[in-house]
Amino acid sequence: MRKVWLVVGVLMMCAVAGVESAHAPSPAADCSTVVLNMSDCFSFMSSGSKESKPQSTCCSGLKTNTECLNDALSNDAQFGVGLDMTKALTLPSAYGVSIPSVSNCREMASSRGVLFLSSGTAMLPHPSKALTGGEDAFFVAHNWLGVADGVGQWSLKGINAGIYARELMDGCAKMVSEFQGDHRIKPEEILIRSAAEAYSFGSSTVLVAYFNGQALNVANIGDSGFIIIRNGSVLRRSSPMLHGFNFPFQIGRGDDPSKLIEGYKIDLEEGDVVITATDGLFDNLYEQEIETIVSKSLEANLKTKEIAGFLASRAQEVGMSASLMSPFADAARAAGYKGETGGKLDDVTVIVSFVQRSPNFHSE
Predict the structure, then answer these.
(1) Could you tell me which residue, 193 or 361, shows the higher pLDDT?
(2) Cα 147–344–218 angle (5° rounding)?
(3) Closest CA to 228 of 183, 290, 175
(4) How far apart are CA 273 and CA 8, in angstroms?
(5) Taking a C-beta distance cutoff of 8 angstroms, is the pair 337, 351 a contact?
(6) What span is annotated as the signal peptide, if there is one (predicted)?
(7) How confident is the model over 160-196, as pLDDT tens digits?
């Protein structure tokens, strides 16, 4: 009966929080379903509980839902549950707070660890732009990553759009560092804040992604994108955002990215592979070829950086060909450019990320 009333209390508080924060969802609103699934944790931690240890379902919840547990421990009132903090602190929280000698969940959680991204990168500039570094940019920080592709047409006005793209990515890396530990910050917020501080002329496509240990959250503008491969097959991929053939959505100085962002949220599993790249990859390699290269690379036990290098090199090889078939040539013919063959020589940036399980329980 105690557990029933506990769940009812959480439901009521989450419903109220959702009404009061209709314009800005609170952590309670975001975490309501997760909190209900972790009710066994709260029945152990709640004030007056006579339980001497949490149930195994609580330990399972801790491994995947540390962000919501963090909200509960830092502000238990928002969930309508009074906590016995002495008991609460015997559990590993999202703050990393634990007392190993008395933690009831530590051993179970440590035996499996938490999921994280292990990433490797490759960036090949267009041969004619090698001296200036090309117009692509990227960043990787913990479970965050991003790519940007400066729009080449700016060169007709004497402007290197790669500078603007690098400002976007540098800004994202800076924001991620500043908000490190705050799991509630979203990729679209990082993108918007970074764009507000980029000051150079030019424009760029941009993708920012964050893996919270359970789902990959993506904010995308333009024709950079991602492919997720699970068990040798493509699970999900992004769709290019285009005004028309070879004319991607993009942002420039002073633009409001929020009007253009397309968001994704995809649950990931251990062993998944995430390929994030600029259009230099996707214009030249078909989905099936990317899938095949990744699968063969995994069989050969190659590292993420090596796989990224193979993908980038193959993309430029196709880009230099006037006869090979490519997604770019297909799109050109569909747009009315009859007889178009070959690839599109371009800058290529690739980030390959393995979804792995850490040996110890921690929160990025």
Answers:
(1) 193
(2) 25
(3) 290
(4) 40
(5) no
(6) 1-21
(7) 889 999 999 999 999 999 987 777 899 999 999 999 9
Which residue's structure tokens are 């009831």? 104
53-57: long-range contacts (C-beta < 8 A, 24 or more apart)?
A: 53/104, 54/91, 54/104, 54/105, 56/108
Mean pLDDT value across the chain: 80
The architecture that CATH gives domain 115-357 is 4-Layer Sandwich (3.60)
- pLDDT, average across residues 70-89: 53
Phi, psi for residue 197 in degrees, rounded to 5: -100, -10
The pLDDT of residue 176: 95
- pTM, full prediction: 0.71
H or E element that contains 277: strand 273-277
The answer to whether the CB of 50 falls within 8 A of the CB of 115 is: no
- Max Cα–Cα distance, the chain, nearest Å: 76
Q: Which residues of 266-277 are buried (b: 16+ CB within 10 A; e: fewer)?
A: bebeeebbbbbb
Q: What residue ranges do the domains of the chain occupy?
A: 2-112, 115-357
